[in-house]
Amino acid sequence: MPIPRVCVASTNAATFLPPSNESSPDPIILAQQHFEYIESYQVKIISKSALGENNVIRYSYRKPGYVRMDFTEPHPGAVLVYNPTSGTVRLWPFGLHQLPVLNLSPANSLIRDQNGHRVDQSDVGTLLRNIRNLQQGGETTIVGKEILQGQPVLHVSVNGPAGFTVSDVHRSELWLENSHHFPIKVVSYGIDGHVIESVFMDAIVFNIQFPDNFFTP
């Protein structure tokens, strides 16, 4: 796996202030607090499902929910864009501005992966909210500080209550980087204890200034 790299690309430092409650004992709450101050981010996602499906995607996000995915695997060149204003997804299966172009609902099975993930629920903010739901009545363990591919991280384990899942996930293992408590590795487990998916995030850029038409090509 490539070494996860994190950088900040905010052009206006006054708009990017860290949360004041750095002493919060709950790293998930702290991660959510930091995410509130992130207006946009771009990351390379490398994921592997329990069925062996690999995905490599350049994932771009801008609040309040714009998403763009540029695929390397398994559909090289494909581009998918979600517009929260219209609530629709545009998909270019063979490359941006190449025919055909499909206009779809985010619930369409054609653009949901093997785990049922939807593009409009794919950002880190949604991930952290789901994990917070697992915490309610469950158990959160701070495993400890570790080094992941040469980078210091905090390893956190969250187990949901007995018999409880959120989007089929019963347990999440997260590795949070130090600067923004952003997850750079997440492993999800089902209620049977088997791995559902492993996700690595590389080359993260925060508060990136996207071109005007980046999410409306």
UniProtKB/TrEMBL annotation:
Keywords: Protein transport, Signal, Transport
Keyword Transport: yes
Protein name in UniProt: DUF1571 domain-containing protein
InterPro entries: LolA/LolB/LppX
Organism: Serratia oryzae
UniProt-listed GO biological process terms: protein transport
Keyword set includes Signal: yes
Subunit organization: Monomer.
